[in-house]
Amino acid sequence: MTCTELAATGLEPAAILVVAALILGLGLLVTLLRVHRGAMVALIVIVTVAVVAGVAWEPLGSSSAHAAAAQCSTDAPDALSIVQTSVMAGLAPDTAPAAITGDVTNISTDDTYIVDVTVSVIAVTKAAGAVAGTCDASDYVIVEPVMDVNEALAGGASTTFAGASIGFVDKPSNQDACQGAAVRLLYTTG
Asked: Based on the structure, what is the number of domains in the chain?
């Protein structure tokens, strides 16, 4: 988990004491100067300037412990490493789907709970020299794409996942363009 300290808001404790003392002094002077209205206006101007100066006392962007807060977020993009351990060779029409297995590792220092790993096809790259024609994600199917894990992983710990498989969709059109194609899979955790 990464926490970033936010900029402080409000006044330093010393500034608050100065402003409070100025206001208290104002109250005493008002009591003493009730008779002289001109002196009262001058005093109010002086106190207003002092209060504004007190508010501006703390530079913008400072990080005082009394008023700063932390904004935290998980390191989701950097916290887990997912590696496929199975090899999927020989996908073709009328062949059994190939099993998908892998390892998920918590590479952060914080504990994290893995509910499941989901796999999907995100890209297909035709082999060099493949025959003309199209070959894309619609030529492949993921069977049972959500693989249950339900395990808490301490920082640095890993576990395995399995249960999904990838198969070749037998379309009525010519699919020779898919021979030797590379299928790119995306793994996400929940």
From this structure: 2
CATH number at residue 168: 2.60.40
Return the structure tokens found at 65: 């412990």
Among 135, 156, 145, 48, which residue's Cα sits nearest to residue 97?
Answer: 145
The kind and range of the H/E element at 167 are strand 158-168
List the structure tokens of 80: 């887990």
Give the residue numbers spanning the domain of 57.
Answer: 2-72
10-residue averages of pLDDT along the chain (190 residues): 42 53 56 48 40 37 35 54 90 90 94 94 93 93 96 94 94 91 92
- Say if residue 94 is in the same domain as residue 147: yes
Which residue type is seen at 59?
A: P
- Give the global pTM: 0.58
